[in-house]
Amino acid sequence: MFDIWIGNINLAVAFLAAAFIIVLPIQLLLCFKVKKLIVRLIPMLVTAISTQIFGLLMIYSGGWNTLGYVLLMIMSCVLLAASLFDWGIWAVVSKIRRKRNGT
Asked: Facing residues of 5 across strands?
């Protein structure tokens, strides 16, 4: 992804780990416990909108600011991918539950 180090820690790996450690349980909890669809979609909508905003800012900025917006867009894409992964887990588990219950 990108190669930025803080001490002995690769920032990309640290961000990916934090994204999946924080976003994964929160989104899964929302998918399985909350009944309203709009509430379950909030994390995904927020990350999708932020990805679009950072993409536009990347296009219309100049100089070193572009690099910053690229990094922010990549990070928000990772969060969006984590949310989509959670929705996939929820869909598979729901299908297995329905098949098991016979409905």
From this structure: 10
pLDDT for the residue 102: 79
For residue 92, the one-letter residue type is V
Q: Check: CB of residue 24 under 8 Å from CB of residue 82.
A: yes
Q: How many CB atoms lie within 10 A of CB 80?
A: 21
Q: What is the pLDDT of residues 17-41, one digit of tens each?
A: 887 788 888 888 998 999 899 999 9
Are residues 74 and 55 in contact, defined by beta-carbon separation less than 8 angstroms? no
Tokens representing 16 are: 């990916």
Six token digits for residue 25: 């349980």
Kindly give, in sequence order, each residue whose CB lies less than 8 Å from that of residue 80, ignoring residues fewer than 6 positions away: 44, 47, 48, 51
Question: Over 90: is that where the pLDDT of 51 sits?
Answer: yes
- For the whole model, what pTM was predicted? 0.80
